[in-house]
Amino acid sequence: MKILFVYTNINGQHADSFADGIAMIMAVTKKAGHEIKMVQIFDKKDYPEFTKEVQEFKPSVIGYTSVSSQFSFVLELSQLAKTISPDIINVCGGVHTTLYPQSITESKALDAVFIGDGEGPFLDFLKKVENKECWKDTENIAHQREDGTMKKNKLRALMTPEELDTLPHPDRTTFPFEKTLKMVGVAPFHFTRGCPFTCTYCSNIGIAKVYGQSRYNIRQATPEHSIQEIEEVIKKNPLIGPVYKIYLTDDIFGLNKKWRREFLKLYRKRVKVPFICLLRCDVATEDTIQDLARGYCDTIQFGVESGNDYIRNTVMSRDMARETIVNAFKLTRKYGIKTHAINIIGVPGETKEMMLDTVRLNREIKPTATSANIFYPYKGTPLGEECFKKDMVDLEMYNDFSNERRDSVLKYSKEWKKTLRYYRTNWNKEIYPYDYNRIASEGWGKFKQQVKAIPVIGPALKDKYAMTRDGLNRLRLIYNNKFKKEISEGRNWYR
Length: 495
Prior knowledge:
alpha/beta, Rossmann fold, seven-stranded mixed sheet, 45% helix
């Protein structure tokens, strides 16, 4: 059976990022023997490409993935698909439909949404469609009744670590991973599902509640399974290492000490590529940082979130002392690992003075890099739900909004929104006002953006630059490999 997968990232927070969730669904679908294709939509101007693919490929099912800020585009594409062929079955999975399955009632063009772990239920659904059986009783889906109300089916138990170990690795062929490398500049991998902490703004606590749990405890395939995935990807993309670092996107890397140590032992022996990972400040013990320093860790991204104790611990439920944050950055510097402080501004109840507490804390901890996102109210999360219940969300803006984390959809004053946008855009300038490397880097970045904006010439130069950069990287790789080979053969380069 023919399945078309669709990934939208229109004005997305991250440029052409790798969507490991839909890549995993594609992998199990391909393994089950179905014929699959994928369309990536980065602009509404790409809609004709989607239309053409639907017309020519003639899929029986179209599978979308979505975060909240992309869901309006999923609904538009679903309607387009039904216009071409009313018999097409449109389904959508991802974080948004898991946290807010009621979204199925927003359009008749979307036939079902998937909730939670989708690998097994999606294959069951496809089997029923292929056998022309009723699929509306499939586990982990919600669909719309004739009267427009939602019917939510039973949830299958979360996959165990043993079951995760039997899954194929994410499909990085149908999902053009080489393109991701060029656009993002790192090689992303994701090995852990879940996070046991209860931050009110985060999807993990929302997913825990979907499954009737108080915490979304972590689940992982074995370290060996994870290392094999990295090895397979490097073999197909040899610029990983010489050019691209590895980015381990787990919400908190290595929380399980036994798993972390076994993974890093294998990584040191078989991968040996500098990597970036994410960590909470309160799990940055000397033991953990030592392990990472020995294991090729280049950068740790820490969620600082807020420098104001009330916002951080009461509103966000971080339960983290200021001293803990300061000590985590000191410890990481001690072991020579770079840091990136990630912050959130514009949460409900925050004043400018509270936001400036975050600026002051960032100056104190002296991260290698720092950034700020503007709070976004995700449905299904405690803080997001509170915003909707208290009528704090501009619904018109929310329903037609893809500027996620770069602007606010809350009913703030124009002046406060302008202040938030300023600080988000100029965050580095506020933290490091006299950093000449930052000034030079930002100047070069602005110049490139101005060149890209020139009609016709800009896009052509951008493509030419990317091709030249890629070519030079490949030449460097060939040269390095030749040099290593000749050194190993004992040739004298100094004659």
